[in-house]
Amino acid sequence: MHHSSSIQSARFYHFDQTLSGAATTSHAEHLQQFRPYLTQLFGELSDAQLNHVFSVAQIQHFETGQFVFQQGDTDNALYIVLSGRLRVLQHTEAGTQILGDVAAGEPVGEFALFTNDPRTASVVAIRGSLVLQIDEADYRTIVAQNPHLAYNLPQFVINRMRRKSFQHRLGAAPKNVAVIKLQADHDFSGWTNDIKQELAEMGTPVTVYEADDSLFADRHAMFEEMENSTGMNILLCDEANPTWANECLTYCDLVVVATEFYAPSSLYSIEEKLKIYSKNILNKKIYLLLLHPENAPLPSQTRRWLEERPVNLHLHLRQGNARDIRRFCRILTHQAIGLVLGGGGAKGAAHIGAAKAMMEAGLEFDFVGGTSAGALYGMGLTITDFDLPKVRDFCQMGVDCKVTSNDYHFPFLSLMTGKNMRTYLKHMLGDVHLEDFWINTYCVSTNYSSACVKVHDTGLARQKVEASIAIPGVFPPVIIDRHLHVDGGVLDNLPIEAMYEKPVRHVIAIALSAQSPRLVDVKTVPSAWDIFLNIFTKKHRYRLPKMPALLMNSLTLNSVQKQENTKKQVSMYLEMDLRSYGLLDWQKWRDVIDKGYQQTCAFLENMPQAERFWKR
To answer: What is the pLDDT of residues 157-166, one digit of tens each?
Structure first.
């Protein structure tokens, strides 16, 4: 779809004019319709105060492709979206970056009202939108008659500045979702009904529209009705009705391309006709929904669907699977939960106990990411679809494979060959690719060649995990696309920032070691002979870290500091006390799981009810 992005003149309204196009809508009804949008900015307003705000401010109508303002402009008006949707763009030397969308009820441009600085980004309408404009003079007039409002708006601006620095503008959930069915003759009603029922239980009423909907003879009136409705509108489209599909793409906030997973994966004619994947500033986010039959096996060759489709997210959905339906609905309504798991060698088994405790408390996870041991155990959880007995079997398998014993060789690149670990990963993950996991999963490694963090969410899972756990000096580095990769914990031992690249509302982060000074009981480092005698005689006179632990902890000091600075950026942060276990204590996995379970249970039990976001 191609739209003009040139600036056009917006249409101005007085409040007593009809805003929605529905002649029966009264002045009082408009007041009540838009009241919630203003109270979040100004606090509670009486009818007289609300009337005054609308009598002073101006309402503008922007067509698709019109700019509300552009980067560098010096106007200082605040805009509140009353209907429709806007997009925030930032222009840099590298090109135009989409920062996010602004939905009905959200403000944009509020900083300029107080700073008078030039605009740092551009805002464009991505569909027909009504916007309330309040410039500096209007604001002064409003607060002159209502002085208490002078406190509420600046407080709102301050709170927005304090938002999680990593989280992109997630904004309001999409209101209008266009579902493009690639197989027109396939019956999608089973999935549609399950999704509709789940959204209703979540408090989001859903109306489903199809091309032959007989409720509206006038298509324009139907779209107006959708704009004024509460809840979410799902617009079903297929190749049989291309005009309707094109209208839906123009009007929607999100595009969901839905297909049978086992169908041919080449581009369908409807995708080409609608130019769904063409790139411009008005493009909507695109999710690829891969539909599986009930009790389907773990997917394979998912990447064939992604080769020609540059989508924002792909999701697997099994028919009749309640957890899959809930996950999809949380993602759709911007209530998704991400689980981030930290590194720590054999201590990583605590992640299994933590996951068990949280699942018993009613938590479900929509995205999982981890570093090093967090990558290993995170993959174990997601490849089994959180089948905890199977994950425990993986732990015993690690002991049987002797991942850190009987694997030493000449230390040219590392103390160990990594052969035992590769064997273990082959048994655990086989040849599955990350795209094939039921739950979107990622891990991070340190790109030694480029000195940066690399996030892996595609490709052969066992290769990416091997890179993520390649402790420098202990395991050899892993070569991916001619780049050397080592343990992700070197630069990011708790990859929270990577999780905020996903459409998540809440992030749960689990760190495996409580941060405390690492004090020792000796004044000088003993000689190698003294250490040997200490080990041989088992006198335990010297309690010093072993070489792998010393190597890893030294390399991750910067990452630990980053972890300390970012733990305030999450909804739930657990810091495990596992100091009695070593990085290589693989045989103690049962005790470590139990520790993780007990500590997480205690944490959740002491958590204030108001902070239990999954219970709301």
So the answer is: 776 665 545 5
Number of continuous H segments (helices) and E segments (strands) in the chain: 21, 21
Of 85, 95, 94, 97, the closest CA to residue 121 belongs to 97
Cα angle: 532, vertex 534, 536; to 5 degrees: 65
Cβ atoms of 12 and 19 closer than 8 Å: no
User: What was the pLDDT predicted at 170?
Assistant: 63
The DSSP annotation for 47-101 comes to HHHHHHHHHHSEEEEE-TT-EEE-TT-----EEEEEEEEEEEEEEETTEEEEEEE
pLDDT mean over 311-323 = 95
- Residue 612: Cβ within 10 Å count: 15
The pTM (predicted TM-score) of the whole model is 0.83
- Radius of gyration over alpha carbons of the chain, in Å? 28
* Inter-residue contact 136 to 110 (CB < 8 Å): no
Q: Which residues, 6+ apart, have CB-to-CB distance to 508 below 8 Å?
A: 337, 338, 339, 340, 358, 363, 365, 570, 571, 572, 573, 574
- What three-state secondary structure class fits 519? coil
Element containing residue 566 per DSSP (H, E): helix 557-566
Q: Which residues pair with 260 in a beta bridge?
A: 291
DSSP states of 412-470 as a string?
SSBSB-SHHHHHHHHHHHTT-BGGGSSSEEEEEEEETTTTEEEEE-SSBHHHHHHHHT-
From CA 310, how far away is CA 308, in angstroms rounded?
7
φ and ψ at 467, to 5 degrees?
-65, -40
